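Support request, priority: normal
Reporter: lab tech (M.K.)
Component: structure prediction queue

Hi team, I submitted a job for Sugar carrier protein C-like from Canna indica yesterday, and the status page still shows it as pending. I've pasted the exact input below so you can check whether something in the sequence is tripping the parser. The sequence length should be 519 residues. Please let me know if I need to resubmit or if it's stuck on your end.
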Amino acid sequence: MAGGVVTSSAPMKNYPGKLTVFVVLACIVASSGGLIFGYDIGISGGVTSMDSFLLKFFPEVYQQQKADSTTNQYCKFNSHLVTLFTSSLYLAALISCFFASTVTRVLGRKWSMFGGGLTFLVGACINGAAKDIAMLIIGRILLGFGVGFAIQSVPLYLSEMAPAKLRGMLNIGFQLMITVGILCANLINYFTAKIKGGWGWRVSLGLACIPAIIITLGSLLLPDTPNSLIERGHTERAKAMLRKVRGTNDIDAEYEDIVAASEESKAIKHPWSNLLKRKYRPQLTMSLLIPFFQQLTGINVVMFYAPVLFKTIGFGSEASLMSAVITGSINMVSTFISIATVDKVGRRALFFQGGIQMIICQVGVGTMFGMKFGTAGKANGPLSKAYTDWLLFFICAYTAGYAWSWGPLGWLVPSEIFPLEIRSACQAIVVAVNMLFTFVVAEGFLSWLCHLKFALFYCFSGILVVMTLFIAFFLPETKNRPIEEMSIVWKKHWFWGRFVADEDVDDENMEMGKKTTTD
Ligand code: BGC
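Reply from support: The job had stalled in the queue. We restarted it manually and it finished. Here are the results:
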């Protein structure tokens, strides 16, 4: 559940207590969960653009890349094994998500994080020491399992440990840590590529150990969440833990609410069949389409392949890696803009602004590639300064547009529209669809570029037009709306209103009324 902090069903109110060391520690562990995910996203493109790495594992791609400018430039890096190196991780993460949700429930969040961190650590060591492609791919698969466990358990852990009023902020905070991980990876690649002797890529891949050690050891030090203890029947331990975590003995109100929430969720026997009820059609649609569209913005073309892309166009190795550092920095800094504005201007405004900016930029990138290589893929002379400046400008403006719209909102919006009845099932779908299409883009991009040439970027802009129209017509504004009131939001919507019957809204309002009176 990357970034998808799950809110507990307990109403948002101010329970007694303060922000304790435990909660701060929880934030650090959560950060390392975002970091390991981001580090993987940012590291592979730089590594696959290093000559020493290509020479060792993919010599035919190295030859292809060094071939003279009469060969088709769009296909320079098109190798199934190179893409498998990047994409295998996301397939593994997708598969492990399903196991991770059971481990997280049965053994608790802590052991899920520990298992994820340890698997990730082993994967990082194998990758750093890799002698052949098999070791590389096995390492990537282990990293993927680790990421799957981390993105399933860490946000859940965070949302249960954090005081209610910090939950929303932590949601985008997790996305922010993903962007920090990507930037760290970009910077590390920039420096390790300069290491003489051609083993810099080992350092890049091996340094993934650092966030892995933080999450593995950190999880051992962390207590289990009170919610998880209650869920597993350890009521006395849960009370003691709540006192410790909140730094007060006055925990009865919160304890009662957690027990009530836990009983409510245990009473839901069939979350998956609930999901198919007509009244949940809007939520089901959003949980499938939002992560699907987030990946089809094409963002991971930049995140995974920025250095490869810049090398394709003719930048030198160092300039390519530096450009990735620039896009990584813009991605991180722009996420702050989202944090600062999302509750003021609302989700739809950010989706529109970011979407339109990305449409223009994808057209710009496609046109620049077309001007340089035409349809035949033949380079025509060296790059002028103006050309490289414009290309970088379009890629950076595109990344900024993503980082304050689809990046954080692709996780935030789904996490705030699911009622308790279907929350776990919908979150699982969001994570799985996200991982699946991360895999598809990682696997497909280099070959799409080879076949569709510069038109590929026009395709991305076409899809962006469709998704921006989708937001305009189908996504209601969710800013400042309590989750319990969401059914009214759908009911009032011109399209979704027909799926929500009057009694569905009444039912949930009655539930809300009950909750408010017990408050
Ligand atoms: C997405 C990743 C993407 C990252 C970029 C995340 O929300 O899930 O696929 O690489 O944003 O910052």
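The chain has 23 helices and no strands. The chain has one domain: 28-481. Let us know if anything else looks off. Ticket resolved.
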